[in-house]
Amino acid sequence: MYIIIVGGGRLGYYLMKALIEEGHEVLVLEKDARVCKTITDELGSVCFRGDGCEASTLAEVGTGRADMFVAVTGDDEDNLVSCQVAKHKHNVPRTIARLRNPKNAALFKKLGVDVTVNSTDIIIEAIEHEVPTHPVTQLLSLDEKGLIIVDVKIPARSTLVGKMVKDLPLPAESKLALIIPSKGSAHVPVAHTILQPGDQIIAITPSQHGDALEKLLRST
Amino acid sequence: MNILIMGCGRVGARLAAMLDENGHKVTILDTDTYSFRRLPASFSGTALFGNGIDEESLIKAGIETADVFVAVTQGDNRNVMACQIAKYIFNVPRAVCRIYDPLREEMYSALGLETLSPTKIIGELLKEQIEGKK
Questions:
Q1: For residue A35, what is the enclosing H or E element?
Q2: What residues of chain B have any CB closer than 8 angstroms to a CB in chain A?
């Protein structure tokens, strides 16, 4: 695949290295001549000096044949505009923007950016996962289907311990997908599976029922 | 009219003062309160510290009741993003955007934003001034 990355900062640099290792054709657009030279000295001619928001620069680097366009500068507005130029002027099929402000996700989607990634949310999720007092972690959100996948640990004194899966008042359209017991191997729950203290459950639920599911699985 | 201006530079401050004098209700936003020195002493509108690409700041500045939003900061991309927030998130009836880069201006104009490129306009005016009007 031909992948264009806007922004040769730390994120852009490591992303480029990873993608090159996977065998993709990668080009980084970077405004700062010094940063560009450092990259070129190390990795060869994979960095083009220019403004990734300018249609003419994007034309010069053949954005029209790019399969993917990734904007990872430190400014949300620059990432938005470069993705919009790539999409509207050069018809790139897939545009990805890094976000600094998580609140911009909805706007970016509305304005035609295909995927947004924001480090704040990822770091918060990772930290929440490590904090034992926070037993529910959202693992993934399937935005198009409006579903989320969560990871819940059943507390030892939970009222659900000893109950069968079929007897749980799960919110509509919610499913328990996997149980990872504190001892033994993971298994797919069936109607007669009995919940044990310390079970870790991977569940899928519509995003609007996330809170209800959490409340149920953590009730003590 | 309720008018919200983002960016209190020379253009923003001058526009705010003129609209204020004409009796409009003007609010002007800037990320540097020092910029507000450009507003005349007679300015009766509101000058607010805040970032025009931050939804909370915009709500504080009263974007929900604004009739017109004007983006005149130094950054083309910031102006474009702010105007799109005004237009598509807050449904402001009119959002006017300054974009220095003529190519970007053409693209966003084609995408339905109300845009002005000072580069194009001043270039044209200077050319006329030099060659004389035909």
A1: helix A33-43
A2: 53-55, 75-78, 80-81, 84-85, 88-89, 101, 103-104, 107, 110-111
Nearest to A16 by CA among A51, A40, A52: A40
Structure tokens at A132: 């034992």
The beta-carbon neighbor of A81 closest among B54, B80, B85 is B80
Task: Quote the number of domains for chain B.
Answer: 1
Cα separation, B91 vs B110, in Å, equals 19
Q: What is the DSSP letter of B72?
A: -
Name all domains of chain A by residue range, CATH numbers in brackets: 2-120 (3.40.50.720), 127-217 (3.30.70.1450)
ipTM of predicted complex: 0.86
pLDDT category at A50 given cuts 50, 70, 90 is very high
Is A80 an interface residue toward B (CB < 8 Å)? yes
* CB contacts, 8 Å: B84 with chain A: 80, 107, 111
- Show the low-confidence residues of chain B (pLDDT under 70): 133-134
- What's the whole-number mean pLDDT along residues A162-181? 89
Contacts made by residues B123-128, CB under 8 angstroms, sequence distance 24+: none
